[in-house]
Design a protein that fits this description.
Rossmann fold; Dna Ligase, domain 1; 10 helices
């Protein structure tokens, strides 16, 4: 029996659901976390003129032969965990070797199904790449500026002649003082535009505010699309629904054919077999693309809208046609 390799953090419980479904179906699953390397996970693989990379990944309880891998599910694994006593420079050197060694072995698995390949996911994380690709395939996008120049922001705001919003260009989550914090999207006031001190220290993304009746989280697995209306119940959630989950209500909905066509082209262009996409729906029903997260959360929206997303991911890994 060929194996499905699952690469995710050990405490990622949505991944537990997928593993459970695959196991109940009789699939052979090898689960690993890159945080297991090098103390609980060992690779021993080789390549020569006669054969491509071959060998095994081994833990204390399981092993998988690379030649037997039929599919890989890749979802935000943990950082490498090195032995105590290593200095900072030693850890940085070891981490670079681990990324190139173990990471290279994993990404070299090119004769199997990926959901999704980490190289494609890494490229798709760039919002400029997403927005350009979405525009190219015919999806509507909001006018967007990325800059660290205050005068460019003021010129952009004057040109838009309407509200603009400031968003993080990369992940909005960071750790400060052992606390997990997040930066949310925010509409800028005239006072904000007057005082843009601190803008010059890094890149910022500014976007024309899109009038919204509600938003849609569109979760895509292979050729299947699970659309959910997200209705904000507070002013804060209307601006960025991640700020007030308690006020949100959800309704399963359908994806218009022209949007579904554009999304399929977009994910093909980005090389993704899974993504969580966000759209703003105007009062007139027009869809505006915001972003595509190649590792976006899906379990809560599956529960709220009764979408079989875990089963769809298992289907995709097993090559089940839908």
């Amino acid at each position: 029996m060929r194996s499905i390799v699952v690469i995710a953090a050990r405490d990622d419980w949505p991944t537990d659901r997928i593993v459970k479904i695959l196991t109940e179906r009789g699939a052979s699953v090898f689960r690993m976390d890159t945080a297991d390397f090098p103390q609980r996970l060992t690779p021993a693989v080789r390549i020569d003129q006669a054969a491509t990379w071959n060998g095994a990944l081994v833990t204390s309880t399981r092993a998988v032969d690379l030649a037997d891998v039929s599919a890989v599910y890749y979802r935000a694994p943990g950082a490498f965990a090195f032995p105590d006593g290593m200095s900072g420079p030693e850890r940085r050197f070891a981490a670079a070797q681990a990324r190139a060694g173990l990471g290279g072995i994993i990404t070299a698995l090119d004769r199997c199904r990926w959901v999704s390949h980490p190289a494609a996911m890494a490229r798709a994380e760039y919002k400029p790449v997403q927005l350009a690709a979405a525009r190219d395939v015919g999806l509507r996008i909001a006018p967007t500026l990325i800059t660290n120049q205050p005068e460019a922001v003021r010129a952009f705001a004057a040109e838009i002649a309407g509200p603009i919003v400031c968003k993080p260009v990369a992940s909005p989550v960071f750790i400060e003082g052992d606390q997990l914090k997040a930066v949310y999207s925010r509409r800028l006031t005239d006072e904000d535009l007057t005082d843009l001190r601190g803008l010059g220290v890094t890149a910022h993304l500014f976007q024309a505010w899109a009038d919204k009746a509600y938003e849609v989280r569109l979760t895509v697995v292979g050729n299947r699309m699970f659309a959910t209306e997200v209705h904000a119940g507070s002013d804060a959630a209307h601006e960025d629904w991640r700020t007030d989950y308690a006020s949100l209500t959800y309704t399963a909905t359908h994806t218009p054919p022209h949007i579904a066509h554009g999304v399929r082209l977009l994910l093909d262009q980005l090389g993704l077999r899974y993504a969580a996409l966000d759209f703003v729906i105007s009062p007139g029903g027009e869809w505006t693309f915001l972003e595509a997260n190649p590792c976006g959360q899906w379990d809560w929206i599956a529960h709220e809208a009764n979408h079989p997303i875990a089963e769809a991911i298992a289907d995709e890994l097993q090559g089940v046609s839908t």
